[in-house]
């Protein structure tokens, strides 16, 4: 999952890119087009709003014969993966699913 260049500069790395490096045939298919509030600090509705128009197909990325698996660092509400998958599907990619390194859970009690 791409970060906005300003966010990547702020962090110094992209966690999702580090996770993706463990897989073969990694391709950069998306770019981040907007800078938004950190998803972890937003409500579910806020996450969806933050991600409206947040991604675009990367220059030169073209659909192939094989389906795409998205890679992200953490799955919270699914809004990031859904937004990214929608852009790729609209561009003609077949999105088979997503892999994340972690899953956020609601605090108990």
Automatic annotation (TrEMBL):
Q: Which organism is it from?
A: Alkalicoccus urumqiensis (Bacillus urumqiensis)
Q: What is this protein called?
A: Phosphoribosyltransferase domain-containing protein
Entry's family note: Belongs to the ComF/GntX family.
Looking up PANTHER family in the UniProt record yields: DNA UTILIZATION PROTEIN YHGH
Q: Which SUPFAM superfamilies match?
A: PRTase-like
| Domain named Phosphoribosyltransferase: residues | 28-102
Taxonomic lineage of the native organism: Bacteria, Bacillati, Bacillota, Bacilli, Bacillales
InterPro entries assigned to the protein according to its UniProt record, in alphabetical order: ComF/GntX_DNA_util-trans, PRTase-like, PRTase_dom
């Amino acid at each position: 999952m791409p970060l906005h260049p300003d966010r990547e500069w702020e962090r110094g790395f992209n966690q999702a890119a580090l996770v993706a490096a463990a897989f073969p045939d990694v391709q950069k298919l998306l770019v981040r087009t907007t800078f938004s509030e950190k998803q972890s600090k937003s409500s579910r509705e806020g996450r969806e709003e933050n991600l409206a128009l947040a991604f675009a197909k990367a220059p030169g990325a073209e659909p192939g014969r094989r389906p795409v698996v998205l890679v992200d660092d953490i799955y919270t509400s699914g809004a990031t993966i859904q937004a990214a998958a929608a852009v790729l599907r609209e561009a003609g990619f077949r999105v088979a699913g997503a892999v994340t390194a972690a899953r956020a859970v609601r605090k108990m009690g």
